[in-house]
Amino acid sequence: MPQCVLLDRPMMVVYLGLIVAACRSAPGPLVPASAQPVSATQVAEWVGVTTPDHSQLHRFKWLLVDETASAGGRGSARVVPPDSLRFDAAGPFGSGAGSAVVVGQKAVWTDPPDAIAKLVPNYPLMWAMFGVAMLPAEGLVLRGLSQDSLTVWQYAGPADTVQYARTGGDPIEFFAEVHHAGELVGRAETTLKPDGTPIKARLTVPSAPARLDLTFLSTTPATFAPDIWLPRPR
């Protein structure tokens, strides 16, 4: 039997915003104007829901498509909470291999130097593809809204704005958008199991235009040897 769910006005605005954003080629903001100022403590709670509580090894297939060509292959990401990541990806037969270690929003090293930049334009978007939100820097304007199974929040600074939306349920849907000087840098959409294990992710970059898809093959608990954080020997 069909079910009808009644929403109050603020939540209706949020849901309509998500639906419109999902259907437009140039999506609008995730966070509606009705969102209210929130504290850093509240934001930390929302971010904490997305942060894995143990080290994980993700293995995935990737496909990058732009206006002129496409490329794909396989990769892995080793994630250690709260915000350390070793990323490796390569095309068929090891072609175009790239690796990087990232802590938060800073690359410790990348090999080659554009290993991250050629795939993702922004570190919050990279983390969002694994279902993880970043904490805000100090001094940003924080707004958000949470009701039932939907939470949306935003960090706004002089030039950059980062927005997140996360739905509960099975599966979980997680969205992130980054705007610079009012222009959309990129949008990540990630589907996760109820325990937070990623299933698939898509990053759309309108300026290229380009699309990066990740299809997760496995996610397993893991412990990592210290040398995996070191650059590959030449």
What does this structure look like?
This protein is mainly beta and 234 residues long. The chain has one domain: Lipoprotein localisation LolA/LolB/LppX (outer membrane lipoprotein receptor (LolB), chain A, Clam). A 13-stranded antiparallel sheet has the order 1-7-8-9-10-11-12-13-2-3-4-5-6. A hairpin with a 2-residue loop joins strand 5 and strand 6. It is globular and about 50 Å long. The chain starts with 8 loop residues before the first helix and ends in a 13-residue tail after the last strand.
Tell me the series of helices and strands, N- to C-terminal. Answer: HEHEEEEEHEEEEEEE
CATH superfamily: Lipoprotein localisation LolA/LolB/LppX
Tell me, rounded to a whole number, the average pLDDT. 88
Give, in spatial order, the strands making up the sheet with the most strands.
1-7-8-9-10-11-12-13-2-3-4-5-6
| Derived structural class | mainly beta
Distance between the termini: 63 Å
Q: Domains counted in the coordinates: how many?
A: 1
Share in β-strands = 35-45%
**Total DSSP helices:** 3
Q: Regarding CATH, which class?
A: Mainly Beta
**Can you name the CATH architecture?**
Clam
Number of beta-strand segments: 13
**Shape assignment:** globular
Low-pLDDT sequence parts = 1-26
Largest beta sheet, briefly? Answer: 13 strands, antiparallel
Q: Portion of residues in helices?
A: 10-25%
Write the CATH fold name. outer membrane lipoprotein receptor (LolB), chain A
